[in-house]
Amino acid sequence: SKEDRDTNVRRIGFVAGEITKNRGVAICAPIAPYAATRREIRSMIEGYGGFVEVHVATPIAECEKRDRKGMYAKARAGLLKNFTGIDDPYEVPERAEIEIDAGVEPPDAAAQRIVLKLEGLEGVGEQAGVGHAQPGQPVDPPASEPAPAPLVRLGVARDQAFCFLYPENLR
Predict the structure, then answer these.
(1) What is d(CA 155, CA 162) in angstroms, rounded to the nearest whole number?
(2) Burial tier of 37 (Cβ tally within 10 Å: 0-12, 13-18, 19+)
(3) Closest Cα partner for 53 from 4, 92, 10, 108?
(4) Are 163 and 12 spatial neighbours (Cβ–Cβ below 8 Å)?
(5) In tens digits, what is the pLDDT along the chain, a chain of 171 residues?
(6) How far apart are the C-alpha atoms of 13 and 9, rounded to whole Å?
(7) How much of the chain is helix, strand and coil, in % rounded to 5?
(8) Spatial CA neighbour of 28 closest among 43, 12, 6, 17
(9) How far apart (Å, rounded) are the C-alpha atoms in residues 4 and 1?
(10) d(CA 113, CA 110)
(11) Farthest-apart Cα atoms in the chain, separation
(12) What are the start-end ranges of the E strands in 15-148?
């Protein structure tokens, strides 16, 4: 239901806010289909630091093609109710800092654009270790430097708005 989705996004936003408030960097990828809830979370997070919203737009046909669990077919058959994009709305973000057309842009190119955006934010790239570690390998700063802030990734889904949050003093 709308209420359940809003509650979930608010919980994720609260945790991300706590991480951001304590100088951490949070990366969140919830299914956040409602503009009002996204605005609410943005407003809350911007009280602690920065907020970069990334809208990954994926055509329904592409989602259905990639759907390994058959969730879209079940939703179209009426077996799943309130399924985003089928019988429940998805409100496109009004001011996402990055727009990705997942039907056209390869995932690696999209990820590179996100990394470049993060590296361009003062202090964030260095703080988060963005672009400085190979996948699966930790970022090991010199002993004289503080350890990088933890990264948090929550969920992954289609046609979503997700955000990168960082502390106020890193703007």
Answers:
(1) 10
(2) buried
(3) 92
(4) no
(5) 889 899 999 999 999 888 888 888 888 888 888 999 999 999 988 888 888 888 888 888 888 888 899 999 999 999 999 998 898 888 888 888 888 888 888 888 888 888 888 777 755 544 444 443 344 444 444 445 444 433 333 233 344 444 444 434 333
(6) 6
(7) 40, 20, 45
(8) 12
(9) 5
(10) 5
(11) 59
(12) 25-28, 49-57, 98-101
In angstroms, what is the C-alpha Rg of the chain?
17
| Strand-pair partners of 49 | 167
Q: What is the distance between the alpha carbons of residues 27 and 16, in angstroms, rounded to a whole number?
A: 8
**Contact (Cβ atoms closer than 8 angstroms) between residue 62 and residue 103:** yes
C-alpha span between 40 and 57 (Å, rounded): 21
Please tell me the distance from the alpha carbon of residue 18 to that of residue 22, in angstroms, as a whole number. Answer: 6
Q: At residue 27, what is the residue type? A: I
Q: Are strands 160-167 and 98-101 parallel, antiparallel or unpaired?
A: unpaired
Residue owning tokens 């990828």: 29
Quote the tokens at residue 70. Answer: 């058959």
Answer whether 159's CB lies under 8 Å from 58's CB.
yes
Distance of CA 77 to the CA centre of its chain: 29
Placement of tokens 């079940």 in the chain: 74
